[in-house]
Amino acid sequence: MSISVQNISKSYKNIKAIDAVSFEVNPGELFGLIGPDGAGKTTIFRILTTLLITDEGTASVVDYDVVKDYKAIRNSVGYMPGKFSLYQDLTVEENLSFFATIFGTTIEENYELIKDIYIQIEPFKKRRAGALSGGMKQKLALCCALIHAPKVLFLDEPTTGVDPVSRKEFWQMLKRLQRKGITILVSTPYMDEASLCDRIALIQKGKVLKIDSPQAITANYEKVIYDIQSKNTHGLIHDLKNYPSHYSVYAFGEFIHYIDKNADFNLKDLEAYLENKNHSEIIIKKAITTIEDVFMDL
Amino acid sequence: MLPIIFILPLIQLVILSNAASFEVKNIRLSYLDHDRSAASRELISKFKASSYFNVSSEFQSKKEANLQMQKGNTDVILEIPIHFERNLIKQKNTNLSVSINAIDGAAAGVSNVYITQIISSFNQSIQTQLQTYNDGNATQPENIMTIPSFWYNKTLNYKTFMVPGILVLLVTMLSLFLSSMNIVREKEVGTLEQINVTPIKKHQFIIGKLFPFWVLGLVILTVGLVIAIVIFNVPILGNIFLIYGFTSIYLILILGIGLFISNHTETQQQAMFIAWFFTVIFILMSGLFTPIESMPTWAQNITYFNPIRYFVEVIRMVMLKGADFNEIKTKIGIIALYAFVINGFAVWSYKKTN
């Protein structure tokens, strides 16, 4: 196992940040922790990167215990905190060589690993890190986390605050790193990114709700979801919530996602109900289940 | 940042050394002369001759004089009573009334000393005159003269003892502030989190963070000493390496205090406040501005924990008195022990994991 977490719990004063969390990550896997803000993702990261000690339970990274062998872990993992935490007043190049030096290596030694990413920020290597754009900061931080060729990479919300194009690029980079044999644990609040992971753990309020591959999670969702659209979206949500057999109703992009309590419910009845409520241009169709739908139901 | 670190303290050194003077000059003196005799005029002319007093005006009534004192137009009112000269000759004894504005207690005290000096010298000369005037062939008056001799600072030049003291303050303040804000800044920016995941060792990180300030402290000391010699002509009688040796140990202590503050605060603001708390106490209880001997006993005991106290004493002893190693070795020992204890605590309380 690359990462193994057994029943860990951690409280800050009276607030339970994570509660009996367990999961395992296989070598070479891209594993995602998916959950809203405050779910406890960062706490898990800080425990696995030896910055925080658990109240209960054990955890190990590349077979090293996070408490006993913390020194070995620090040598073999790369960590990219959610907040940009490189030296803003050092240049891109200085940051990189600084981190290479404290890991006892050089940029040249592991250049192959970071080449793809570094090439994109190389034109700005004389620029101070603080003056970089969000996407470039992210790439530099990734380079610094990779400079000592870690076995496991921890990325805490790496795409928060990054534009959609850079986000897409970033995930492509992660896929390439994965192919080089690096185990990656990534957290994100964006549900659409979940489908890019090999396996995900859905987390809420410090508890793991589900662990599986994104495909299996959506495939195993037994309820049928309908996309519903009409001219008056706000009224539509209100009216659907008043429909006697509704299970859940929520906005999803341009559509309203509607789930009925009854598996055999009749679409015609719903359409008639909505027409009766003076809705026009009504569209009702089966939707493709996404991670977000599953999450909303948990 | 670097120019700020260098230039501001040196401007402070130049300005403060010229301004932080205990001498009171330009005391505004007014008088009421009810006697209008030769003796009273001589007394007033004595005051006029002194460089410390600006003898402004003569008042006709006590009331008017008091009014001017209230308005703040005069600092001292000297009232010469009627029959001043007659009493002086006949009874060899008379009274003078001196009113001093004591809003600034320290200045009033100093004014009082100057006034007493002038009056007593007047007294002496008038007595000599009277004796010779009364019976020319009589015995010589017995006069005891005290001639003070100020060792280690012959002209009692305040700059000579203030400049080394102020230099000590600057070196201390600079290194304490910079070091206490340093690691806490990394906490604030978040870089500490990244550093903590690296295999860097605790002592490597701490030394790496504090060594630049140690060097900086010594550089500031050097520049300050050059200014002290070139601009203020402060003598350096002792061995200059003794000052550097002491400062090297002293800076380790101060940086340890800074590290300690840094470890126990979360933001630069908190660190700044605590650093201020300590510097103000250290400075005011250092014996630089008020002599330690005049503090109450409990306060004197506190000053034993004040590193600035030792530094001020050592730098003055070495620069002005030419003290050698043997004379300051106890103080070096105290500071070294202090540095060891504080740094022990600071390093122990610095944790990479929480």
UniProtKB/TrEMBL annotation, chain A:
* UniProt cross-references to InterPro entries, sorted A to Z: AAA+_ATPase, ABC_transporter-like_ATP-bd, ABC_transporter-like_CS, P-loop_NTPase
The keyword Secreted is annotated on this UniProt entry: no
Top-level taxon in the UniProt lineage: Bacteria
Which key words tag this protein in UniProt?
Answer: ATP-binding, Nucleotide-binding
Extract the GO molecular function terms from the UniProt entry: ATP binding; ATP hydrolysis activity
* SMART domains reported in the protein's UniProt record: AAA (SM00382)
**Does the UniProt entry include the keyword DNA repair?**
no
**Record domain ABC transporter: where:** 3-230
PANTHER family associated with the record: ABC TRANSPORTER G FAMILY MEMBER 20 ISOFORM X1, ATP-BINDING CASSETTE, SUB-FAMILY H, MEMBER 1
**What protein name is recorded for this chain?**
ABC-type multidrug transport system, ATPase component
Instruction: Name the species this protein comes from.
Output: Flavobacterium gillisiae
From TrEMBL, chain B:
Q: Where in the cell is it found?
A: Cell membrane
Tell me the Gene3D superfamilies matching this sequence: abc type-2 transporter like domain
Instruction: Name the UniProt key words of this record, in alphabetical order.
Output: Cell membrane, Membrane, Transmembrane, Transmembrane helix, Transport
Look up the domain of life of the source.
Bacteria
| GO CC terms of this entry | plasma membrane
Record flagged with keyword Nucleus:
no
Q: Where is the ABC transmembrane type-2 domain?
A: 115-353
Residue stretches spanning the membrane: 161-178, 211-234, 240-261, 273-292, 332-350
- What one GO molecular function would you report for this record? ABC-type transporter activity
Q: Name one Pfam family in it.
A: ABC2_membrane_3
As for membrane topology, the entry says:
Multi-pass membrane protein
Transport recorded as keyword: yes
Which family does the UniProt entry place this protein in?
Belongs to the ABC-2 integral membrane protein family.
Q: What is this protein called?
A: ABC-2 type transport system permease protein
Q: Which organism is it from?
A: Flavobacterium gillisiae
The organism that produces this protein has a lineage beginning with:
Bacteria, Pseudomonadati, Bacteroidota, Flavobacteriia, Flavobacteriales
